[in-house]
């Protein structure tokens, strides 16, 4: 089975989302019909408006009808085959961009879980109140993204967090593994130190000392608890700070790189592109004005 990694083009780069209404016209499915299996790092949620819509996810057929909501996890293979005239909303978002310092440990449950996230669709079947609440949140996100009233970025971010929270608290089958509060509390001195010293060089040995762990135990413990490696976590925090400086300060790229502790420009550009799929200059130009050519206020 051939598959393609889809590069989702965000409509709102600072929010890392794409949302659109789709219309599909009924067409026969034949043996000669092209099948385009694809996947992406973004979580996708479909909200059916009318008609019937069919697709495969991980080779399992699914048919949705008006009122249905369906979740597709990060990197899950899927392809569609419209089976009736259909209209629906498609919402794609990078969950990591919407989990701040306190919520990042949940990232691994949604992006790196050994259980395909699509298995959580039992929630929408068995708990219609959750299904309706998620559908309403996505409809609100669609309206906010189109109208772009002052504060729409905040409104969208709030709705995304509501969706994440609804899934976490409605998983009565415990398909999403729960975390122990003691795990994150043990790392709190390390996380606080990183937050307060992002412009400094921070060695893993210092983190081991703060957590009172050996090197090998610490790196495994951090990845298991946070869902991201220690090095990637620090880099991600530095890039997030660089994003804000790019948009709020009249500083050169070199000054910003030095401010976040990445004075080596080649390394700074490489890491920025790794996390944002663009250079710092491209990010600044792209983000100074949104789709409606209205300045973004931070």
Report on this model:
With 298 residues, the protein is of the alpha+beta class. It contains eleven helices and eight strands. Strands 2, 4, 5, 6, 7 and 8 form a six-stranded antiparallel beta sheet that branches. A hairpin with a 2-residue loop joins strand 4 and strand 5. Helix 5 (181-196) packs across helix 6 (204-211). The protein is globular.
Topology:
Layout: E1 3-5, E2 17-24, E3 37-39, E4 43-57, E5 60-65, E6 69-72, E7 78-80, E8 86-93, H1 107-111, H2 122-126, H3 128-147, H4 152-170, H5 181-196, H6 204-211, H7 215-226, H8 230-248, H9 253-259, H10 265-276, H11 280-288
Parallel strand pairs: 1-3
Antiparallel strand pairs: 2-8, 4-5, 4-6, 4-7, 4-8
- Low-pLDDT stretches are 29-34, 290-298
Structural class: alpha+beta
- C-alpha Rg (nearest Å): 21 Å
Shape designation: globular
Mean pLDDT across the residues is 84
- Taken as a percent bin, the fraction of beta residues is 15-25%
**How many distinct helices?**
11
Instruction: Give me the count of strands.
Output: 8
Largest sheet: 6 strands, antiparallel
Order of helices and strands: EEEEEEEEHHHHHHHHHHH
